[in-house]
Each structure stands twice: as C-alpha cells, then as structure tokens.
Amino acid sequence: MKIRFCEAERRVFARREKLTVSQWASKYLIVQDGIYRGSPLRLDVSPFLRGPMDAYSRPGVREVVVCGSLQVGKTLLLYACLGWSMDYRPGIKMLAMPTRESRDRVVEKKLRPMLQGSPVLRRMVAKYRRENILLKDGTSIELATAESPSQRASITVQDLFVDEEDLYSRSGDSSPLEDFKGRTRSYGDFAKIIRACQPKGDESSSIWTGITRQVDQLMCYEVVCPACRHQHLMDVDRIVVPDGETDPRLIRSRKLARYRCPHCQYLWSDHARDLAVASGRWRPYVWTGAAFEPGPDISDARSIGFHLPAVLSRFVSLSDL
Ligand SMILES: [Zn+2]
How remote is the CA of residue 262 from the centroid of ligand 1, in Å? Predict the structure, then answer.
C-alpha cells in the first residue's frame, strides 16, 4: 500500500535542522529599525550577541543573565531568543516588563513589528491582545508587568523573558523578579529564563548582582588589538584625547577620542575599535568585588551571565564615552 502525504503533512513530518539562536535569528529575523532596517539580522554588526544567544539555546542552560548598556542590542537579543523559543519550544511564554506603559509601547513599536516582519513567526500568531499574544498551537506569550501582581501569580510559564528588571518597583517584601521566576518552577529543569537589563549603577542593581554573584559562570568579552593582536578586556579608563582638547562638544563633534592599546600603545579610532570587537571572543571571568579577573571555564554551567559595556557597541563612539 502506498501512502501519500499532502504538502502540509510533509512540512509537519519533515525533520527540521536544529539551529542555535544566532543561526536562527540570522535566517528568520528582519531588522525593524535603524540603518539596517528591512534586511535580515546581521550579527557582524554586534558580534558579541552570538555568545548570549547561543548560550540560551544550549540544552543544559536554564538561565542567561545579560547586564548591558544602552545600544548594545539587548532588546534584539531578547526577541531573538523569544522567536527561537516560539519556533522550537512550544509552551507558554512570558515577557515581563516594568510598567503597563512600557509594555504597551514596546509591544506596539518593537515586538509586534518583529513578529509580523518574520514570515516564520507571523504564521504562528493567532491574535494580538493587550495582555497576551495567542498562538495558533493554543499556547500564548503573556505580556506581564511588574505592576500587576495578580497577573503574575496566576500563570505557569515555561519560558520567561525578563526585560529591564532594575526598573521593577518593589512593594513591601515581594520582589517582582522572584515572583516572575517562581512562575517557571513547575517546569523544573525544562524551563528557560533570560534576563537583559541596563544596570542602575549601584549595589541594589539586581542585574549586576545576577551576573556577579548568582550565576554559575560569568563571561566577559575580550577584544583583539588590530595592530599587535593583544587580546584583553576593554577599560574605559584607557580612552584618551591625544591633542589635549578638553571641550566635550568639540571632542564629540570632531570624534577626537582614541583608545590606547595596553600592549602596543597604538591609538584606536572608532573604526579600529569596531575591528577589535569583530575579532573578539567571550572568556570566563569572575568578579572579585573590585574588578573582573580571568576565571575557570565551567563547562556544565546551568546559569551564565554576560557583561556588555557600551564601549563594545559600534553605535557608541569613543568620543561619546
Ligand atoms: Zn596593540
């Protein structure tokens, strides 16, 4: 007897290649704003995003924590992981944001265009609502805010995406972040969590505490000097203005600042910095309480933190810093 499958059945039964988040995003995500708008995501623009993206798709990893400045691509990172999760991990997801106002703005301006711009993801969405996005497989992406404790308490979540947790306001003893994480408990080791946030800059920053004290493994991004190939962690204290100009407006408008290589003393322009970042890689580090120092490589880490300072971003000039 011969069995014939229709086109839709063949698609369902086809063995799909399993891509990492960075491979998936480069293939299926379309950039929605900025100078690369309309083109597929190019990770050569932000090569450091591959590390946290691919840590998220690694099977043993349960939690990825990214402490990053503005302009390093944190939102893109969160949405790439969300899209990958929609494609490969059916189940209820939650995107947690600080306030209703920030949620409504982000969903309208960023999330919805991202979902509609990607043919793979667009096909999966059944309905957009204010508090969730219903998917055709019967699950949903819950759009939660730290302002609505009742919503947090009532839903069990497989994959949690935590945006800008340092802006979550606490009421009494309850921590919105811990409440959100508690929603994933019934999924045990199968749950995945990713947190991305700009640190508030003092000891109370939960994202800073997250990467420096709570994760199994901390990763920092080393760059490679285009002149001498020396590999090191960038330090903003090495930014200099060679001809002694002190007027911040002139420094910015004429892009006078340079970065001094600690090994060969070559002065990097913004372009040289971008080359140094393009050749860079993530390395295991520890936070000593005063500085980042090289640390052991923990191959079976279940939670991984990533530190992403603004100095790595090609959208931030050395002269702005
Ligand atoms: Zn050098």
Answer: 7
Please state, for a pLDDT cut of 90, what percent of the chain lies above it. 74
**Is 241 in contact with 258 (CB distance < 8 Å)?**
yes
CA of 237 to the centre of ligand 1 (A): 16
CA of 307 to the centre of ligand 1 (A): 23
Q: How many residues does the chain have?
A: 321
Instruction: Indicate which CATH number applies to the domain containing 206.
Output: 3.40.50.300
Residues 74, 66 contacting (CB under 8 angstroms): yes
**Based on the structure, what is the number of domains in the chain?**
1
pLDDT at position 309 is 94
The domain in which residue 201 lies consists of 18-219+301-312
Ligand 1 centroid to 52 CA: how many Å? 27
- The CA 277 to ligand 1 mean position distance, Å, reads 13
- Dihedral angle, C-alpha 254, 43, 74, 234, nearest 10 °: -50
Q: For residue 20, what are its two tokens? A: 């990492």
- Domain assignment present for residue 34? The answer is yes
pLDDT in tens, 191-210: 999 999 999 877 789 999 99
Residue 273 lies in a domain: no
Helix axis angle for 21-28 and 74-88, nearest 10°, is 90
Residue 237 DSSP one-character state: G
In a domain, 280, yes or no: no
The confidence score (pLDDT) of residue 152 equals 60
Q: Give the residues across from 200 on adjacent strands.
A: none
What's the confidence (pLDDT) of residue 151?
64
* Cα(304)–Cα(52) distance, integer angstroms: 8
Q: Report residues of the chain scoring pLDDT below 50.
A: none
Q: Kindly state whether residue 97 falls inside one of the protein's structural domains.
A: yes
